[in-house]
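For the sake of transparency, this paper describes our internal protein records without simplification. The remainder of this section carries one protein's record, kept here as part of the documentation:
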Amino acid sequence: MGAVAWVAFNGRSRAEAIEALGYVDTGAEAEVDDGLVCAELPGGWVTVVAIGKQAGDFSRAEFLAPLSREGPVLAVDYSTTVMWSIIQAYAGGGLAWSVEHDPEEGIDHLAVVGEPPPQYIPLRDRLLAEQEAEGGEDAGVDLIFDLPALLSEALCGYQPEQADDQPAFTALRRPARVGAPASARKRRGLLGFLFR
């Protein structure tokens, strides 16, 4: 899958979450692999999932912090290419806590900021024990990488690899740009082209 990210909103409607991110719901049914999708989750959560280059903003503090002024926001970002992953929780316009795994720092690396929820400790301990049983640093697998996605599933009910009960997603798109009609843009000439 490469880069995958999702943002989950608690206490907001689907329409409010989509509007907060600046997208438009097409209403067309979609799969997670389609790139930019939205679904309602049990327990009052709404998630927007982005795949590939669309996932870029979903882990940046300057993007996430303002979204949390209206209610809690949970964000997960990971790359299966480099096996890096992070989960972040924002509330009241700021970071509440985060857990990051960077295998470049070691197979059992976990950088924790703030105080993660109670579900974190048992998940961490289980994955560390499983990693050690597989051979620790010499294992051919990185199980700690899964911690942010599994913690997301425990908190908001979503992670993309869950075996069953995937929510019903619809495709999102960026809104059309408002500006001069195409015919006016064509007439701007070379200087308009160079300085657009």
Notes: The chain has six helices and nine strands. Residues 3-176 form one domain. Strands lie at 3-10, 24-30, 36-41, 45-51, 73-79, 84-91, 94-101, 111-114, 169-173.
